[in-house]
Amino acid sequence: MDRIETKDLAFYRLQSAKERLAVAEDLFNLEHHRDCLSKAYYSLFQAARAALATLGLDSRKHSGVISVFNINFVKTGIFPKEYRKIIASSQDLRLASDYDDFYLASKQDAKKTLKDV
């Protein structure tokens, strides 16, 4: 991928992240906390993919994106170490929201996730 393509891809993914965050905020205001948590995670995930695109990197799996992001941006100090915990927490809440039948998403978790994201 050449420099222009990586810049365009990073920009596109960052726009996608911003759109998903706006939707997550709308869902929070409607008190749809499960869907808010899911959409907030995908906002964070797309932002991580945007960062990876600036280095010409990506992964086909969520775990791969998170791992490569942590290696290239958190371990190097570009992003604070807290980001590792924020990403992990957001992913755990997204998985619970999307797949656990009896999971009750709390307003507090949704609010904290939106603040962190």
TrEMBL record:
Record-annotated HEPN domain positions: 13-117
Leader sequence segment: none
UniProt superkingdom: Bacteria
Any one Pfam family match given in the protein's UniProt record, by short name: HEPN
Sequence similarity: Belongs to the UPF0332 family.
PANTHER family the UniProt entry points to: UPF0332 PROTEIN TM_1000 (PTHR36565)
Name of the molecule in the record: HEPN domain-containing protein
Organism: Desulfosporosinus fructosivorans
